[in-house]
Automatic annotation (TrEMBL):
Keywords (A to Z) from UniProt: Signal
Pfam families (UniProt xref): Amidohydro_1 (PF01979)
UniProt-recorded name of the protein: Amidohydrolase family protein
Annotated InterPro entries: Amidohydro-rel, Metal-dep_hydrolase_composite, Metal_Hydrolase, Metallo-dep_Hydrolase
The Amidohydrolase-related domain, residue ranges: 87-448
Span of the signal peptide: 1-31
Amino acid sequence: MRRIRPSRRVYTAIRLGAAISTMCLSGGAFAETVVLDHFTLIDGTGRAPVADQALVMTDGRITWVGPSGRRPAAAKSATSEDLRGKYLMPGIIDSHVHLGLVNGVDQNFTKYYDRANIEAQLRLYAAYGVTSVYTLGTDGDTIHDVIADQRRIGRVEMARAYTAGRGVVFKGSYGGVPGLDQSVATPAEATAMVERETAKGDDFVKLWMDDEFGTIAERMPYPVSTAVIAAAHKADKKAAAHIFYYDNAAELTREGVDVFMHQVRDRVADAPLIAAMKARGTWQLASTLSREASFTYTLLPFVDDPFFSRGVAPSTVATLKSDERQQRLAASPTFPKYPKVLTNAMASFAAEAKAGVKYGMGTDSGPTARFPGYFAHWEMELMVKAGVTPLQAITAATGTNASFLGSNEAGTVQKGKWADLLVLDRDPVADIRNTRAISSVYIAGRKVPTIWQTCVGRAADACGAAKP
Ligand SMILES: [Zn+2]
């Protein structure tokens, strides 16, 4: 009787397959290796800058980082770049954005929210060195297609997105965007919505509790927020809250919310609230100081700054400068309220940071006239104005923001992480505005066009010479 066993050819194929996979794992014949050398490293963990460091990136991941003199001999295929005099930090993470809502300054979810618009904005974030964004509760289901593709590809050419999907709005109250079905009337509806939406793959859960300076009848009632938080935790997701009022921040902390995505702004966060946040482990992931600051101007003060204007179409700048717009903003009943809101937000942030509340960096950019990328640099500048050091602002915007989501494999310059990197011509620890001196941006070890090589809505050379 013949015994049935695999043919010789099958054995050979298995052995060959094993050999190929071993080669891939060990960074063999087909690995893409890039070496960066002699830069000053700001690694995103909070560690002070270290001079004359080197980095090896293999297939988009950091495989070695350390003193230049101890760099391992590079693989034969390696390309190498001398970054003497430059500063290397992790790509920035903006923990509070909204994608795909606008065309210029015209905001309309129904008209503009699609994959092309989302991805164009993710490319613009990347040009500004913002290599990951957390999108905060105004997404249609398209975001899940974008993110699924990003995570399958890994080596993307735009900012990586993480989403709170459709955030939970209390029916008739503040929050969300017109055209997106995301409101609930009861705790039971809130539970059902969170179960339904997290099943689509949301990275975390968002709720809104606000009343637009008292102009809306009711904020989200506490039994609804309690239900949202419980359902999020049951799905093993963190619950993030839009807040404005001190009292709501205090109650949501008691309810076990994980993170605030704006500052307390009706007054200044005080010792009892800060003690409660620390005791419960509540994070302040976004302080959105640039959001509040933007509302204190009828004309944003940087519209002619090339770092800004390269990223927007000339028609957008013209709209921002129009008399009609400036008069309309000046006449708005909320306009006079914002200087105090900004002062309160900055003081709340400073008090929390000083007391040891965990804080990240987030802008709330994406809605009309709050611009992707530029606002992240402005936010870090405002954080420093409020009282933290440039190094602390950078750590918030990189390592701390990354650590909020366990799934974020970037945010620090460490072995095993994605090589999502920002290379600067000047020292950002000496002056936080030097984060704008962008020399290059890497996502997964490959350069993407920087804002200094970008000229939105015009011929490539219409913004002046591109910096290399
Ligand atoms: Zn927001």
